From TrEMBL:
This is Tryptophan synthase beta chain. It holds the Pfam family PALP. Its cofactor is pyridoxal 5'-phosphate. SUPFAM superfamilies: Tryptophan synthase beta subunit-like PLP-dependent enzymes. Its EC number is 4.2.1.20. Belongs to the TrpB family.
């Protein structure tokens, strides 16, 4: 239980709910009711049913034999890329839309950077016939046109935000303002294990289906539910939180999170929060973030839009601080090589984000009998343009 959130919403010194007074009602309602709702039999039944019939779970645990041969150690891939919409993100948005319904909410808001969380939110709103508003920085709206069109086709309203840098942080501020103004009928769906308590815990619980399935599948395939190590990429940290969750107290299992080094952790173009960041408050949570000496957030950079975030969830800040998990960083260049390796060894084109976890295999020492599980968080379909440009096919 050492790594679970405490009653005040903290993981050690990280977390909490650093919210403006005016958001108290919204967050307090969630905090009071989320556990009772998501632990009820009726909720679990509908959540499990949708994960099975709509998302397509359980996702396979695949023994990658040619990749294993290449590295001289056993490598398994948890195939979140095979979920409906191509990543782990739907596990969370399904959970939150069901919670919103239980809370009697009739309107959903979300913020999105690259648009992937926006699409996952618009998807579940279509599924449930609930009104959906997605805030997105105006710069991101122009950079991510295909996802904007997808959200609109799914029936969502996309509102471009013109303040600040016109990116994710500005979209987040606008979503919070909306929520403050509409506390009665609106639920705010946050897309990772970030934000004020109870979001980090709630999202980790929804994503924990990943490690629950892994335990069963490992037992069937290897005779033990405990692997040697688990590797997952970390943006906000939700796929990693889900992959680690049921192993947190099994200290013999090594947990490795991989952040985006971008052009390198010693350059200004990076998103490796735990390497270059310092403690502070971001997105209403005390965590580690990238900031300058005046406490201004520094703009992160990564080739992968999903890891391009200046903070990290408070659970991971705690796992880092306590040493329970190790955190590495992979550069754009290393990641692209890892994409090609998996593609040509296994016939699986991974998302740029997920390939950060794959790239870390070159950075660790593995023994022949080790069981290494990579959480393959998403499919490379969305990144094909980048791949074709870079590799020149
Ligand atoms: C959004 C995304 C991520 C990063 O988010 P986390 O909350 O850190 O998991 C990673 N992989 C894929 C495929 C994504 O779409």
């Amino acid at each position: 239980m050492k790594y679970q959130v405490d009653e005040k919403g903290y993981y050690g010194e990280f977390g909490g709910a650093w919210i403006p007074e005016m958001m108290f009602t919204n967050v307090d309602e969630l905090k009071r009711r989320y556990l009772e709702i998501i632990e009820s039999e009726a909720f679990k039944k509908e959540f499990d049913q949708l994960l099975k019939d709509y998302v397509g779970r359980p996702s396979p645990l695949y023994y990658a034999s040619r990749l294993s041969e290449h590295y001289g150690s056993k490598i398994y891939l948890k195939r979140e890329d095979l979920n409906h919409t191509g990543s782990h993100k739907l596990n969370n948005t399904i959970g939150q839309i069901l919670l919103a319904q239980q809370l009697g909410k009739t309107r959903i808001i979300a913020e999105t950077g690259a648009g992937q969380h926006g699409v996952a939110t618009a998807t579940v709103c279509a599924l449930k016939g609930i009104k959906c508003i997605v805030y997105m920085g105006a710069l991101d709206v122009s950079r991510q046109a295909p996802n904007v069109k997808k959200m609109k086709m799914l029936g969502a309203e996309v509102i471009p935000v013109h303040s600040g840098n016109k990116t994710l942080k500005d979209a987040t501020n606008e979503a919070m303002r909306d929520w403050i103004n509409n506390p009665e009928d609106t639920h705010y769906i946050i897309g990772s294990v970030v934000g004020p308590h109870p979001y980090p815990d709630m999202v980790a619980r929804f994503q924990s289906v990943i490690s629950a399935e892994m335990k069963k599948q490992l037992l069937e395939q290897t005779g033990s539910e405990f692997p040697t190590r688990i590797l997952a990429c970390v943006g906000g940290g939700s796929n990693a939180a889900g992959a680690f969750y049921h192993f947190l107290d099994d200290e013999q299992v090594e947990l490795i999170g991989v952040e985006a080094a971008g052009k390198g952790v010693d350059t200004d173009e990076t998103a490796a929060t735990l390497t270059v960041g310092t403690p502070g408050v971001l997105h209403s949570s005390r965590t580690v973030l990238m900031q300058n000496e005046d406490g201004q957030i520094t703009e992160p950079y990564s080739i992968s839009a999903g890891l391009d975030y200046p903070g990290i969830g408070p659970l991971h800040a705690h796992l880092f601080k306590t040493g329970r998990a190790k955190f590495l960083a992979a550069t754009d260049e290393e990641v692209l090589q890892a994409v090609l390796l998996l593609t040509q060894k296994e016939g699986i084109i991974p998302a740029l984000e997920s390939a950060h976890a794959l790239a870390a295999l070159d950075k660790i020492k593995m023994n022949p009998d080790d069981v290494n599980v990579i959480n393959l968080s998403g499919s490379g379909n969305k990144d094909m343009e980048t791949y074709l440009d870079y590799f020149g096919y």
